[in-house]
Design a protein that fits this description.
Elements: H1 2-9, H2 13-34, H3 37-43, H4 48-60, H5 73-86, H6 93-106, H7 123-136, H8 139-143, H9 147-157, H10 174-186, H11 192-195, H12 198-203, H13 222-234, H14 243-251, H15 272-275, H16 277-283, H17 287-295, E1 325-326, E2 343-344, H18 348-354, H19 365-376, H20 393-407, H21 442-454
Length: 455
């Protein structure tokens, strides 16, 4: 009996790691609390110029240690360019031209983008390349994307289950579904064939916890939850998910440190500022669906195939003969609009962000901003996972993306600038607004939406 009691009180590896990280974070917070007002203000400043210098340098030349990311070069372009756009800046025209030319060489003759010139086309690097080119903007950048070939690549990756493969003979998972559907939506090439049965696959990945796993039968994860949730919105079947349990799961992912963890019993990581914070940003516009699901709990809500969940009807005066449409029975509505009519799939991303937020903020936005500024920010530029880690472009991108979502989380609509009390630190910390479904700066998204709708 004594042995059993002793074993039960021995901390696990997970507990020891959690306590160690908490100790590091709370030391920083204690130091911050002890400082005079002017020193606190300095610590809460977003070091914009230093971040821009770090990012621009990375876009021009990388250390040889980055050779391990040879198959991820479009991602490096996206992480850096999107971060620069969030900071309200852009790169010089010559560097933009170099990126466009490089990504054009990554574009496979048969569609899609590889991790580098001559590499196998891959859905993840296709998503990264497309978002990078949208972040640059302008006719030359956007017209460099061969949409017809991209569409053929997406069709080749489509599986009978409804899911997608990441590449030829590659893995099938929720990530592939999101990257395929996101690319198709933003390029205005989303149609019934690409959407067919995608919702069934994602629904099979929602776990007993409420989050979404990468594959059926595996553990709920922040990145996959965002990917699956965003995909269900873009294909207009979000009401098929159990939104109440999804909200319950993600609400418990914000820890004592203020940041988010990616999975149950895992450590805080600044990249989940976007992956989990983005889920909250999406949920804020789905309150009517969530309420109606709860009202129908245990009642007469029948799943009879693809169901529309986001009101995204063809705009008045817009011709619908050349756009994709989905027929479905709608049990729910968003923003009081009837969603039972045929839907233009390619307008969902546009109309979704135009919908006003229906709910108050659902997470502690100031706690998240504090974690990013005090624990993830490198004073010399760049952001990192947690205090003990080193800066990198991935965490810089997704920390800033989550920081932006957090700042705008109190705004009721996309035209409303945040009030000063929604921005931790000086108001100069305010970033550009990012689209919560695609994670590109809203201004660049609108430009791309208009460009691809015409072409």
């Amino acid at each position: 009996m004594a042995t059993s009691t002793s074993a039960s009180t021995t901390p696990t590896v997970t507990q020891r790691e959690q306590w160690r990280v908490e100790s590091q974070v709370f030391q920083i917070y204690d130091l911050f609390a002890s400082l005079p007002r002017n020193a606190k203000s300095a610590m809460l400043e977003l070091h914009r110029d230093n971040h821009l210098e770090y990012l621009a340098k990375g876009l021009k030349r990388l250390d040889p240690s980055f050779s391990v990311l040879d198959a991820n070069r479009p991602w490096l372009c996206y992480w850096i360019l999107h971060s620069i756009a969030l900071l309200g800046d852009h790169v010089e025209p010559e560097l933009e031209d170099n990126v466009i030319e490089f990504l054009s060489r990554c574009q496979d003759p048969n569609g899609g983008y590889g991790g580098g010139p001559g590499q196998l086309p891959h859905l993840a690097t296709t998503y990264a390349a497309v978002n990078a080119l949208i972040s640059i903007g302008g006719d030359r950048s956007l017209s460099s994307i061969n949409r017809a070939k991209v569409y053929m690549f997406l069709r080749r990756m489509k599986q009978p289950s409804g899911a997608f493969r990441m590449h030829d003979a590659g893995e099938i998972d929720v990530r592939a579904c999101y990257t395929a559907i996101s690319v198709a939506s933003v390029l205005n090439i989303l149609d019934d064939e690409l959407v067919q049965n995608v919702g069934d696959y994602i629904l099979s990945c929602q776990t007993y916890e409420g989050g979404i796993a990468g594959e059926p039968g595996t553990e709920a994860h922040g990145g996959y939850t965002f990917c699956g949730f965003a995909t269900m919105i873009l294909i207009n079947e979000v009401n098929r998910l159990d939104l109440a349990s999804l909200l319950d799961w993600v609400a418990f992912r914000q820890g004592r440190e203020g940041g988010f963890q990616g999975r149950t019993n895992k450590l805080v990581d600044s990249c989940y500022s976007f992956w989990q914070g983005g889920v909250f940003a999406l949920l804020q516009r789905l309150n009517s669906i969530l309420d109606e699901q709860l009202a129908h709990f245990g009642g007469d809500c029948v799943d009879d195939g693809p169901q529309t969940g986001v009101a995204s009807d063809t705009s008045e005066g817009e011709e619908s003969s050349d756009v994709s449409q989905v027929e479905g029975t709608c049990h729910f509505k968003l923003g009081g609009m009837n969603a039972s009519c045929p839907v233009n799939l390619n307008s969902i991303g546009y109309n979704f962000v135009k919908q006003p937020a229906e709910m108050e903020i659902l997470f502690h936005s100031w706690a998240l901003q504090q974690y990013i500024l005090l624990c993830a920010q490198e004073m010399g530029g760049g952001l990192k996972d947690k205090p003990e880690k080193r800066r990198d472009f991935y965490h810089t991108c997704y920390s800033l993306s989550g920081f932006s979502l957090s700042q705008y989380s109190w705004s009721q609509d996309e035209d409303s600038p945040p009030l000063p009390n929604a921005v931790m630190g000086p108001y100069a910390n305010l970033l550009e607004r990012t689209h919560p479904l695609f994670n590109v700066v809203l201004e660049q998204y609108y430009e791309a939406h208009e460009f691809f709708a015409k072409s």
